[in-house]
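User: ok so my PI wants both of these folded by tonight, can you help

Assistant: No problem, let's get them done. Here's the first:
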Amino acid sequence: MDEQATHKDRQKKELQKQLDEFQMLSAIYCNPGELRVDDYGCIDNLNSYISGETDRLTTKLDYRFELPLLPDQRVQILVELPHRYPALEMPRIVIRSAVIPRDQERRLTDRIVRYIEEEVLERDEAYVYQVVGWIQDNFAELLASTAERKESKACPRSTGATTSPIVFERLWIYSHHLKSKMKRQTIIKTARDLRLTGFSRPGKPAIICVEGQQADTQEFWRTIKPLKWQKIQIKLCETETVVAGGENEMAALRHFAAGFREELFCADMDEDSDAEDQPMSMSLFMKFLDKHRCGYIKKELFGFQNAIDAPAS
């Protein structure tokens, strides 16, 4: 067996372990809403790859738990499995809750990584169940320890102390093209996990806009930039300082209040179509920008300022 065939056989074994573990988790967390998969097509794709029906892996297995870990409040545990989990790569496990500050969520994620590195000694077999069980058993302690770390870094008490401001940021990202369905899913998932608003337009060219707290937009950029791109760059970075706790002011700055979604700007195309083969309808895109008070970006993206200057679609 040549090296490529050996690698493929090993990967199939890893993917089968992922599916077997998910089946086990589904039997354990079987109450309504406890365990969900956003796209069951990913399971079909993994099964087809394992059986040899396809040679392409177009997605990763990701799912989310919603567990009552806080009084009167469900907490999400998001799980994303790389193709070489469990033997060669660690899962991405993130805790999300409306009542947990974002900085603390990041510290919780770091603590989960440390637990895996220090406590999960046998990584040849799937271990998401072990990690989730540990989170459930130690959640109160985890919250306390990460909150204490935050307090320990606070400024010394002072009668003249003021609350630090936060920075709202909007990034306009331009890429030569965006073809991969896996990459498209990563963009959408990352933006939504970080609670960013905006849109992505796959195809050629690809345009992505994200807006929210600067810490989150920069984390989004750090996540997508290492993906394989022919060319990708930030065309424009808009920032504005907001007084900490000014949620209404932050909301007013957003141009895409409905959330983050993929926009195709092609009249006869859906999300399962080959976006890279479809031309962007420039007129639809211009109307979209104007609707969301973003007409100023036309010059940065295409070199013209007004829809009247745009080429016909």
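One down. Here's the second:
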Amino acid sequence: MNQTVHGNWFDQATHSRAEDISSPIEDQDMLPPDVDEATRRIVMRVLMFAVTPGIGVLGVVGNVLSTLILLRHGLKKCSNILLFSLALADIVYLVSFNSIPKILYETTDMHGFVGFSEYSSRVLMAFYSVFMTLDFSSSFVSLRMPMLITIERLIVIFFPLSAHRIITPKRTWCAVTFIVLYSIGLFAYTGFWFESSYEWDPVRNMSVGYRVLIPQDARDAVAMSVIEDMSVYSLVVDAPLITVAGCIVISIKIKLVSRNRKKMTSKEMSSNRTTKMLLAVCAVYTVTCIIMVSAINLPSIFGRPFSGNRPTGLSVICYQVLNIFICINSSCNFIIYIGLNKNFRKTYLQLCSSKANKRNVKYFGSQSIETT
């Protein structure tokens, strides 16, 4: 499994001079039939021009509303800090994943910047590289945040009297900051393994801008192996296992506590409702992780992220479908908050009513000025 993680999170967006000519793939007989270029191009354009941007727009709007509501509630509670950080990470991921340079680069039949001058191509490539780093690092943060949420809930449930001393807002911000810096450092370093190239294509009779993966002997083999193993372990091993195991324990605890509902204080009932909402967030995350683990363990579809092998048309499509599930995971939290948290829903309605009142005041004010 360590050799197949991320599939084409990196190599699907590259053009390699040497590897395009000969792409050695292990176990050729095990490879599924590939899709033709025309089919790949149509499917990718539908997914990248319609499906993922549509999900992304809804997700960004929902996460922006979530941040506004959480700011109104205040960031003194550790759970609010974690949800606020998760919403920000989801916003960055959805914007970066659906960025214009990425769409321009990945939807062309040549997988590059076609029809641009060398200067424009290199500028677009610079933005593309930045968005790719933000894409990977923010999705990494987003997919690890449920683990922190689970740990926080476990402490609150099992140590209710001392939880406020164990997990403080300062410690929570430190944990979030560590994950953010770790993810940015991890994926920013890999950006040095690529370079921009502006090459003449004799078939199209034009020059095309590519993101080139430098030769393998120029990359640090040890660092490459360590990063691949770390990305596997961080995304599909420790975080999902801790989250799933914690959610099971929390669910059992909630059922046991629910039997003594009459003896529960209002504070305990409020904590119980918050826990159920956070469990729903972790449940969606768990489903996403199951899909990711199932997908990246298909070596015939997903290759090694830094191997340099040029991806097949099928792998590019599968990569995009996999990211649709991650986009859904990053977009649906607002619906969970509205559906399961009474206070969140109340604040949302207050925001909507206050904006409506402001519009009415502005409208009737202008009407009165006109009549006078």
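The first helix runs from residue 17 to 21. Residues 1-31, 303-308, 363-372 have pLDDT under 50 and may be disordered. Good luck tonight!
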